[in-house]
Prior knowledge:
Blueprint: H1 6-15, H2 17-34, E1 44-50, H3 63-71, H4 74-84, H5 86-89, H6 99-110, E2 111-115, E3 121-127, H7 130-173
Helix pairs in contact: 4-7
Amino acid sequence: MLSFSTIDVLSLIIKRWKHIAIIVGAALLGAFVISSEWIMKPRYKSMAVVYPVNIIPYSDESPTEQLLQLFQSADVRGMMIKRFRLADHYNVDTTARPGKSKLYLTISDNIDIRKTEYESVKIEIYDVNPDTACSMVNAMIHFVDIKARSLQREKTQEVVNIFQDQLNHKKVIH
């Protein structure tokens, strides 16, 4: 049975120190090159936490869950794609067959939206430009606000139409 002692290991290291130094040097050089800005661009994070104050609940879902759905809606994603020209920004060819799917996957890799434990929604956007990441967070909040107002107007118009129909029905009866 083979057994190694500390002395045996140290003598082996001393004996092969040139080989070990070359391997360690190559690993350090490789790590430096791969992690440099030429290969891996740094990504900056911009973050916001939003509380659902302008959301009127329409169902059993909480306002936070409804806000989360608005942030993840296709309308908001479409507005973000158009406003920031995300296909060009992420160098994705949307005319190719899996282009849209690749764009949506890239967007989901760079945008993280989740519910917090305090009934709010946390938005994190990563980008190679810190100003762009910040602008994207602000724009996304603005687009969700527009979408929420639009939904509220639609629901309010439905209620107005129902009351108008009831009023017309009462006028006919009397």
